[in-house]
Structure formats: structure tokens, C-alpha cells
């Protein structure tokens, strides 16, 4: 699977953000005004088998996928999932509606558009701080194509 390299020092530069590394291989992030945006970065393994690698005073993470989560009230949550294809392209690959602890199907196009706006905003913010210029971040399709 194709991955993009992000350094912990880069993640720390995201304005109005908090992140939490989970040893199961992902990073949970809250960012934006009042930490209203929720993103999970799913990590790939380094050559040494770990999900993070310490080098030159910084941790490196290899991100394969991410998803955004939006609260829709009444214990309802919208999720949209994206995978990294390389060359700066992120592709939407699935959506999910969760009510309580139950998965209830896919999102409508309006619900998916809201998730897509959050995903694009996150990637634009990430583009501002990443030093991997050859890995410029973008979502590969407008919302109406993400069905």
C-alpha cells in the first residue's frame, strides 16, 4: 500500500489541534476552532515493523488512510474514508453512518459532501505544514463524484 511520510514535528504545527498516538497503529486528531474536526490517520509499518520510527530527534509516521468523523446529533455520526494513492492523490473509498454503536449504512450525497469539506480542509491545512513537497496533498475528485 502507498504511504505518505509525516513527521511528528509537522503534526505539532497544525494550528488549533491535538493529536493522540495509539499503539494499535493510528493517530486520532482533533483540530480547528474548538477542536470541532475529528480525523483518524491509519499508519503503515516501517521496515523495522513499527508504526512510528524515531530518527534525528523526531518521529516519522507512514500514513496509508484517513477518515473524518462528523457528529450529526442524537448519537449519529458520519464517516468518510480516504486512501493515499501516491503522487499527492487521496481517493475516497467508503462512507458509513453510525447510530449509537450500530453501523446503519452509507451516507447520502449531502452528508458525504460535509465529510468531504472536512477532509479537504484537513488536507489543505496539512499541505501548509508538510515538508514533503513531492507528496503534496489533494483529494482526487469533487464531492459529486464521491458516491
Descriptors for this entry?
single chain; 147 residues; alpha+beta; 10-stranded mixed beta sheet; 2 helices; globular
Can you give a write-up of this model?
The structure is a single chain. The protein is 17% helix and 47% strand. It has 147 residues and is of the alpha+beta class. Strands 1, 2, 3, 4, 5, 6, 7, 8, 9 and 10 form a ten-stranded mixed β-sheet that branches. The longest helix is centred in the C-terminal third of the chain and has 21 residues, at 109-129. Residues 141-147 have low confidence and may be disordered.
- Annotation field: number of helices: 2
User: What integer is the average pLDDT?
Assistant: 84
Strand-pairing-aware structural class: alpha+beta
Major β-sheet profile:
10 strands, mixed
Number of strands: 10
Euclidean distance between termini CA atoms? 23 Å
Strand content: over 45%
- Which series of helices and strands comes N to C? EHEEEEEEEEHE
Rg value: 15 Å
Amino acid at each position: 500500500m502507498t504511504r505518505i511520510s509525516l513527521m511528528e514535528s509537522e503534526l505539532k504545527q497544525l494550528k488549533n489541534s491535538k493529536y493522540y498516538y495509539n499503539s494499535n497503529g493510528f493517530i486520532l486528531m482533533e483540530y480547528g476552532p474548538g477542536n470541532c474536526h475529528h480525523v483518524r490517520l491509519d499508519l503503515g509499518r516501517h521496515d523495522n515493523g513499527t508504526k512510528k520510527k524515531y530518527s534525528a530527534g523526531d518521529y516519522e509516521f507512514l500514513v496509508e488512510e484517513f477518515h473524518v468523523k462528523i457528529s450529526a446529533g442524537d448519537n449519529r455520526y458520519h464517516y468518510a474514508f480516504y486512501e493515499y494513492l501516491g503522487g499527492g492523490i487521496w481517493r475516497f473509498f467508503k462512507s458509513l453512518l453510525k447510530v449509537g454503536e450500530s453501523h446503519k449504512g452509507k451516507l447520502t450525497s449531502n452528508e458525504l459532501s460535509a465529510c468531504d469539506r472536512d477532509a479537504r480542509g484537513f488536507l489543505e491545512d496539512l499541505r501548509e505544514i508538510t515538508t514533503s513537497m513531492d507528496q503534496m496533498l489533494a483529494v482526487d475528485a469533487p464531492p459529486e463524484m464521491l458516491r
